[in-house]
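Re: Re: token formats

Sure, here are both.
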Amino acid sequence: MSASQATPKYNCDDSDLEMTSSTFQYAVTHVFLPVRLPKHSDYTLENDLALARAVCAAAHAYSAHVCGASDQTQWVRITKMLDNLQASAKSERLDEDQVISQLRGMQTGGTPTGSL
């Protein structure tokens, strides 16, 4: 971004980014070790939301270091997609109004997220 452009605001909720031991283990298993399936379901809404928050925060932190207009454009799309994914992860079920709002907010070249 040029000096005249403002840093884009994002909706990543990193206010409660601290993870418990179990949510940290869930994130490590599902990000770095996905080849091995757990013996039982380890899904919880809390785990999924913690994982979505951590990935979203990391993507936004990384995007501050991206150089080049083309790469920045791609990262804006990626971080917007992750913002939407994180918003969807806050509930067990997709909220119809939220999905409609996310779809209306999409632009050409944008990417749908979640289980749409």
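Second one below.
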Amino acid sequence: MPVGSLVRLVLRYRFSVYLLRRTRLVTKPKKKPLSKPTLPDANESRGAVAVTIVWMLLALSCLAAQLVALATWLVARAAGIPAGRPNALILVPTTLMMVALLTGIALLLITPLAYRVRKSRPPTTITVAALIIAIAPIITVAVVAAIG
């Protein structure tokens, strides 16, 4: 088959497809509209979302205070500062443990509220982690007070 006749055949085919599309006998496949992703808190009220945010911020601040208190205490011990003498480096861990204690108590108080106001329950692992974070400074302060 000569090249010229092949080109004419392709052009005829393209022109016939063009005409069919123009007359709407053959339509292009329509693209499906993209579905919008659903937000995890779409069914929750603004108050429930606010309580959840406060709950998680309390958990993170309690954990951060405990970790920084531990790190500062370890640095003070490594520097050879005795625990009985007042020093600025020793005051930091005690202050942060007080912050961790207060945020831990607030976290324990707000956990039932987070369950009550939400329609869907928070994940169990998150709740267990938050409760462990909240109880840890209480146990730490009790042990340090018992030791002396």
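The chain is about 70% helix and 0% strand. The CA atoms of residues 95 and 116 lie 32 Å apart.
- S.
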